[in-house]
What does this fold into?
Amino acid sequence: MTRETISCEIAEMIAEAMYMDTNDVEQDELFSSFGLESLTLTRIVGEINRRYGLELRVVDVLQHQTLRQTSTLVVAALACEEQHRAQ
It folds into this structure.
């Protein structure tokens, strides 16, 4: 799965949670500029984990405060999971 695909899917999650248009979720804009607060971020991280079979924590995403950074984090986590399964 590409970073672009994951980025689009996470943008949809954010847009839905914040009642925004997906096109308004910019790649390099801080999540806080969308008004994203901790409770909503917790729900989004839970959805990311369910969708991709990951175990990211909110603190992991807080260290990656943009859509581009978070989607890159998810790609890296998926690659790590895939590597563990292959062993």
